């Protein structure tokens, strides 16, 4: 999880999501937005915008971990 967080910050994904949340809150009115609203609106965009390089690196790390664990 730490590696994922680090990579998402490095590639600007976190800042992009923060900007989307702020834009949505401005559009709807700050007092008219709940956390659930943000999650509902931002989650699909967030998942779709994770860079393929980050996904590939994490997948490779998980595979390596599973391979090393199965050899024990």
UniProtKB/TrEMBL annotation:
InterPro entries: TF_ENY2 (IPR018783), TF_EnY2_sf (IPR038212)
GO molecular function, one term: transcription coactivator activity
Keyword Protein transport found: yes
Subcellular localization, as worded in the UniProt entry: Nucleus, Nucleoplasm
GO biological process, one term: mRNA export from nucleus
Main localization, broad class: nucleus
One GO CC term, this protein: nucleoplasm
Span of the signal peptide: none
Assigned keywords, A-Z: Activator, Chromatin regulator, mRNA transport, Nucleus, Protein transport, Transcription, Transcription regulation, Translocation, Transport
Pfam families in the cross-refs: EnY2
Summary of the function given for this chain in its UniProt record: Involved in mRNA export coupled transcription activation by association with both the TREX-2 and the SAGA complexes. The transcription regulatory histone acetylation (HAT) complex SAGA is a multiprotein complex that activates transcription by remodeling chromatin and mediating histone acetylation and deubiquitination. Within the SAGA complex, participates to a subcomplex that specifically deubiquitinates histones. The SAGA complex is recruited to specific gene promoters by activators, where it is required for transcription.
Entry similarity comment: Belongs to the ENY2 family.
PANTHER family found in the cross-reference section: ENHANCER OF YELLOW 2 TRANSCRIPTION FACTOR (PTHR12514)
Subunit field text: Component of the nuclear pore complex (NPC)-associated TREX-2 complex (transcription and export complex 2). Component of the SAGA transcription coactivator-HAT complex. Within the SAGA complex, participates to a subcomplex of SAGA called the DUB module (deubiquitination module).
Protein name: Transcription and mRNA export factor ENY2
